[in-house]
Write a structure and sequence with these properties.
- The protein is of the alpha/beta class.
- It folds into 2 domains: about 190 residues, Quinone Oxidoreductase, Chain A, domain 1 (Alpha-Beta Complex); about 140 residues, Rossmann fold (3-Layer(aba) Sandwich), CATH 3.40.50.
- The chain is built from 12 helices and 20 strands.
- The strands form 5 sheets. Strands 3, 7, 8, 11, 12, 19 and 20 form a 7-stranded mixed β-sheet that branches. A 6-stranded parallel β-sheet has the order 15-14-13-16-17-18. The protein has a 3-stranded antiparallel β-sheet with strand order 2-1-6, covered by helices on one side.
- β14, α6 and β15 form a beta-alpha-beta unit.
- It starts with a strand and ends with a strand.
- Bound molecules: zinc ion (2 copies).
- The site of one zinc ion (ZN) has 9 residues, from α2.
Length: about 350
């Protein structure tokens, strides 16, 4: 089968790989679409970082560089022992695999599993014609939901998880810092919220998209003046501020924009340690929460339901690229910042 394999920074190759054999509890998916996100692009430009170079990959038994791809949908074409019921079904996959047995898993927090690993990052993923996946990470795609929409389920699940972690209550004023990749799925995840949703970004194009996705207000800021204009919109501070930009200093800006008794959710990642004014947090009783990845059992079905009733591909997908052209038409333009929206990679079979 054809597969996109990361060897070294900038060296992603389309190669022939043996088709994996599903182990007990796993299925073999014929991949329909695989979405790319910032993590893939960082791996491509600076990696391998999270991606191992010398892993023995379960299923294929292949030892060596990893096949990328962790946001995918496909058709189940074969199954290992105990997973036969899935054959023939159209499915969306979660990205993270959890054990189902540890203390965190038993509490439903499978994204924090002791033995968590991520398909397409810790082991071979779905930028290929086929991928072997544990059946526990799969959800059937509703009949009314086309593959193109379902391909957004994993990143939308991440957005829905973030909104749930933020503890948004009805009527709350929510400020979102950063309307980029993560931010757009958080906005989509805020669908139905009845309070103000203010999207903040340095890019007017992103803000226009944010409005279409459901932001009630947008605020264009500059890197030099990242919060003054936002403060004018919310004199008493916001109930919830979601930091999705990952820009250095943004976490403290999020705290500054939060009103007394409000909460801050950190989703964006910064490489360098950031400082927060803890006395201010305590004196104004502000809760700081964090969110990572998603929970397969709860966030993924909600994402699929939402995409069935509210298609998002028209708003979020910039292009669909054939697997054969994945390097030149997807990774390079993404790495050069030439693509604003989501890129989906399609693996034609046969
Ligand atoms: Zn991703
Ligand atoms: Zn576990």
């Amino acid at each position: 089968m054809r597969a996109a394999v990361l060897h070294s920074p900038g060296d992603l190759r389309l190669e022939e790989r043996p088709c994996p054999t599903p182990r007990p509890g796993e299925v073999l998916l014929a991949v329909t679409y695989n979405g790319l996100c910032g993590t893939d692009i960082t791996e491509f430009t600076k990696g391998p970082m999270m991606v191992p170079l010398t892993t023995r990959h379960p299923g294929s038994g292949h030892v060596g560089p990893t096949v990328l791809g962790h946001e995918f949908v496909g058709q189940v074409v074969d199954a290992g022992e105990g997973a036969d019921g899935w054959v023939g079904r159209r499915v969306a996959s979660g990205a993270g695999v959890s054990c189902g047995k540890c203390a965190r898993c038993r509490r439903g927090r499978t994204n924090l599993c002791d033995r968590y690993y991520t398909l397409g990052l810790s082991t071979d993923g779905a930028l290929a014609e086929f991928v072997a996946v544990p059946a526990t990470t799969l959800r059937a795609i509703p009949d009314a939901c086309p593959d193109l929409e379902a391909a957004l389920a994993q990143p939308l699940a991440v957005g829905l998880h973030a909104v749930a972690r933020a503890g948004v209550s009805p009527g709350d004023t929510v400020v979102l810092l950063g309307a980029g990749a993560i931010g757009s799925f958080i906005l989509a995840g805020l669908a139905g919220h009845d309070g103000r949703v203010i999207a903040v970004d340095v890019d007017p194009v992103r803000l226009a998209a944010a409005q279409t996705l459901g932001a009630t207000e947008t605020c264009l800021v500059s890197p030099a003046e990242p919060i003054a204009a936002v403060r004018d919109l919310i004199p008493g501070g916001a109930d919830v501020v979601i930091e999705g930009s990952g820009v250095p200093g943004a976490a403290q800006n999020a705290v500054s924009l939060t009103g007394r008794g409000g909460s801050v959710l950190l989703v964006g990642l910064t490489k360098t340690p950031q400082s927060l004014d803890l006395a201010d947090l305590v004196l104004r009783e502000i809760a700081v929460r964090t969110s990572v990845a998603h929970v397969c059992d709860t966030d993924l079905p909600r994402a699929l339901d939402l995409l069935t009733t509210r298609p998002l591909s028209g708003l979020l997908v910039d292009r669909v690229v054939d697997l054969d052209d994945v390097v030149d038409d997807a990774f390079r333009p993404l790495a050069e910042g030439q693509v604003a929206g989501k890129v989906l990679v399609s693996a034609r079979h046969g």
